[in-house]
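idk why but the lab printer keeps eating my pages so im just putting this in chat instead. protein + adenosine-5'-triphosphate:
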Amino acid sequence: MSNKIQAIRGMNDLLPKDSSLWLSLEKTIFDLFTSYGFKNIRTPIVEKTDTFCRAIGEATDIVEKEMYSWKESSGESLSLRPEGTAGCVRAMIEHNLPREGIQKVFYQGAMFRHERPQKGRYRQFHQVGVEVFGADTAKIDAELMAMTHSLWQNLGLKNVTLEINTLGSTEARANYRSILVDYFTQYKDQLDEDSTRRLSSNPLRILDSKNKDMQSLINAAPKLMDHLDGESSKHFDEFKAYLECLDIPYIINTRLVRGLDYYNRTVFEWTTTDLGSQGTICAGGRYDGLVEKMGGKSTPAVGFALGLERLILLLEAQGVALEKSPLSIYLVALGDNAQLKSMQIATQLHQALPKAILYNDITLGSFKAQFKKADKANADYALILGEEEVQNNQIAIKPLKGQGEQQTMSLEDAIQYFKN
Ligand code: ATP
Ligand code: MG
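predcted complex ->
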């Protein structure tokens, strides 16, 4: 066995060759969310295990088997965050923010779940998420859909479908829960092991089962939609009316219950068929009861999280290129004076052309060797500084791609040349 050090299974490096796509994806997302009035929030990666158990719910996959938890010497159990909402809610309550008015926040970062790694499913993965605290109207639920819909358009993504459902009020859900338990109890012999366990702990989750043998049983199950309370039914109608006026197509998926316990009323997922079974790229819903359940003052809330790895896979699958590569210049310098001067010139170029990539040669090789480096860096231009140029206070520009003669000019003219 080799003793080469290796990363942990399901936790990936992002290598330099791939990171520009990530950076431009993140920038597109952050700019869009900012333009909708969302502000960034950053909470710790580690929280008390209890924070996640209370928020996510004991009878969920995450809390039952996916959390990375450990005991401090004090005996307190801590965990790596498996999702971002619990920490956000904890921070809202701790800093009393909802008291100051409606809070629209977005977060980003690594999440950790002990799952079986496969394409689109990792043990460390990255989410960008959005939460709104203090607004209970369907209008804000719809604004989140408008924003995510714009995101797919801005990214040039196709074939993403909005699936929506409503989980009703807590009371309607509790009522439906017992109807569902009665139904599945009749067919107990057809339930698999997971669903049998969920029958007592979290029966709604049976609807979410991916087991093919249970599909007809699940399809025939009573629907929450038929047992909705009046208020939730009105809220859902309003939500749909907004989607229609926004021209956002949707399908109603009555089996959509979401994995986490805290949801009520609106739930939604943006899905694609281009990623195999890991087809959900963005998911969320309303969780009006959570802030109070976590010890805060009752505050309605709604949010979603999107999985960046899956978005990247989808961009790749659909052949979408995000980044336009910026102008790149390799600064070739020969001779001691030219080396000194090249540092000044590089600083001036960085100021004048902040978006350009500038490689100031650090190998100090021959002209020929430096030009080879410029080719390797895939630079658009070489900017040449020899003793003669230094003496004449000039520089030479040589296009490295396509046609064009070498030209000598002042730095000011060169900057103008690149700006054009
Ligand atoms: P799934 O049903 O695929 O397990 P989930 O319901 O557990 O998803 P959420 O908790 O709603 O997912 O997380 C929101 C999004 O984060 C998902 O839609 C997905 O894009 C992404 N995501 C969740 N778990 C993982 C993971 N293990 N690896 C990569 N991305 C993930
Ligand atoms: Mg999951």
